[in-house]
Design a protein that fits this description.
single chain, 72% helix, 83 residues, mainly alpha, elongated, 3 helices
Length: 83
């Protein structure tokens, strides 16, 4: 089910939407706008997750021991590859 949402766009925005339709981003203006909303929502969620990860690293920074363990793991994984 979909719900109509009356929205006003400037002529410049309509030209942009029409170019995106012409480029195959969506079959219609509505499809392009729906895709843009999904893209924006994903971008906002990724930014939220990124901030959460950065906040956790600030709250509990990596130690020298963590760095050494990460390097040891990387070396072990590389050596385990059947190159």
């Amino acid at each position: 089910m979909t719900t109509a949402v009356p929205t006003r766009f400037s002529s410049r925005q309509i030209e942009t939407i029409d170019r995106l339709v012409a480029a195959g981003v969506g079959d219609t203006r509505s499809a392009v706008i729906r895709r843009a909303v999904e893209h924006l929502a994903e971008s906002v969620e990724r930014a939220r997750i990124g901030r959460s990860i950065a906040d956790s690293y600030r709250a509990q920074p990596q130690t020298v021991e963590d760095d050494a363990q990460a390097m040891a793991n990387a070396i072990a994984m590389t050596e385990a590859e059947p190159w």
